[in-house]
Amino acid sequence: MENIKHDLIVVDSEPSILEFKEIIKDIAKNPNVLALKERVQHKNRSRYYHCLCVAYNTYCICKKLKLDYISATRGAMLHDFYYYDWRDKNVEDQKKFHAFRHPRIALNNATDIFDLNNIEKDIILKHMWPLTLRFPAYRESYIVTLVDKYCATRELFKNFKK
Ligand SMILES: [Fe+2]
Ligand SMILES: [Fe+2]
Q: Against a cut of 0.85, is the pTM above it?
């Protein structure tokens, strides 16, 4: 696992890295998901790394709050499961509609491969809330929306510092 220690929000909620790895094992080792290592999310961070950070922080927080941390972690690991580069200037309107479009693409990609429950699907589909107007249906989904923004901000901030 890539070093994500510096991007953790919660470190004292009795998280277990072994349990975390077990929860996401089939997802993290799937070749289609591993391909996200080749996709850049925020300049020097891969999309795989970003999903891993969101998933691990989600795992820690949801476990602490006694929520369905298994579904939350798995949904978080798949929340950005798409391959295109939203910065690609050759694709018309790519940047403009990316925020609204990629959750549905990620959900379709995920359901093509994995058998997802309603919480996992909601997490993927609503993770851009409040930009996408439909409210998340589960507390776990709200956690992922917040953690995603936290991780993305940290990744961007690190780039600005560099
Ligand atoms: Fe996203
Ligand atoms: Fe994300």
A: yes
